[in-house]
Structures are given as C-alpha cells and as structure tokens.
Amino acid sequence: MIDLDMAANDNERLALSIFKAMEDGNLMEQMAALCTDDFVWANSGLPTLSGQAAVRDLMARGGFRNEIPILINQTHFSADVLYMASADNVVFTERVDHHWAADGRDLMTPHIAGVIEIRNGRISALRDFYDIACYGQEPTDVQPEFTLEAFRARLSDA
User: Fold this and answer.
1) What pTM did the predictor assign?
2) How far apart, in whole angstroms, are the C-alpha atoms of residue 130 and residue 111?
3) Which residue from 113, 109, 115 is spatially nearest to 97, judged by alpha carbons?
4) How large is the C-alpha radius of gyration of the chain?
5) Do 15 and 123 contact (CB within 8 A), yes or no?
6) Is 105 in contact with 139 (CB distance < 8 Å)?
7) How many CA atoms lie within 13 A of 22 on its CB side?
8) How many CA atoms lie within 13 A of 138 on its CB side?
C-alpha cells in the first residue's frame, strides 16, 4: 500500500499521490490537481492515453477492464512500491500492482518499472513497463475472510 511518507522530495510525493488516488478510488476526482491537462498515460501493450479527457473517457467506459479481460471483476487496487528514485523532474518506481476482486482474489499482479515526469508541479506523464503475460495470469484463490470495508480501513491507516 502507498505510504506518502516514503517520498524523499516533492516530486516523489506527487508521484506517490497518483498511486494513492488509485488505491483510494478517487483518481478521477484528484486528476486535475495531480496531472497536467496534456497528461500522457502509457501501459505496456495498451493504447497510450493522451490528455486528461482521454483518461476520463476510458474510465467512463469501464476503465482498463475493457482492454484486459482478467480485470472484469476488479473492485479495488493497491500497489507496493519496492524502490523509488528521482532526478530533476523524473521519478522512477519499481512496484507490484494488485488488482483485486470483491472476494479478495488478486486478479493481476504486474511487477512494474514506472517513469513519472513532472512539469510545473504536476504529473505530465506516467509510463509503466511490465510483462504483458500478466494479462492472462491465474487470479489468486478467494479469501473468505476478506471484506472491502476492512481493506479500505487498512488504506486509511496507512
């Protein structure tokens, strides 16, 4: 889960903030404050999204689950940042993303090398590089004790 306190500077904190917004489920509400209008979002094997309007359009149509069938049952997201480094206006992350279903199955867990570009205090580009074999991976087993409420509470405590 994202811990904003691991940031060593403002650019790293901003980079972590976009992942935190994804975890909190409020990326669309936070995007204008976090990203430039011409924000570019690129993911391995998927069409590049150019501009906030393109991201909003994709999300209005169901998000990445339309591009990656394994995500059809995704209800929430979390990320584990393993390493982060920055130089000038670029932040690099190594992380593992988790795409969860309501029953606690982890549907897809790509190991990602990410590049975040910052311009004038906002994110201008997010490029994630990973093996697209994850699009066909087997989800984890159902976790009978899992509840979305407990998951969200853990996010709030982080």
Assistant:
1) 0.90
2) 6
3) 109
4) 15
5) yes
6) yes
7) 21
8) 3
- CATH architecture, range 4-157: Roll (3.10)
Neighbouring CB atoms inside 10 A of 135's CB total 18
Q: What stretch of H or E contains 54?
A: helix 52-60
Burial 99-114 (b: 16+ CB within 10 A, else e): bbbeebbbbbbbebeb
Residue pLDDT tens, the chain, 158 long: 899 999 999 999 999 999 999 999 999 999 999 999 999 999 999 999 999 999 999 999 989 988 999 999 999 999 999 999 999 999 999 999 999 999 999 999 999 999 999 999 999 999 999 999 999 999 999 888 887 788 778 777 76
Strands 122-129 and 35-43 come out as parallel
Domain ranges of the chain: 4-157
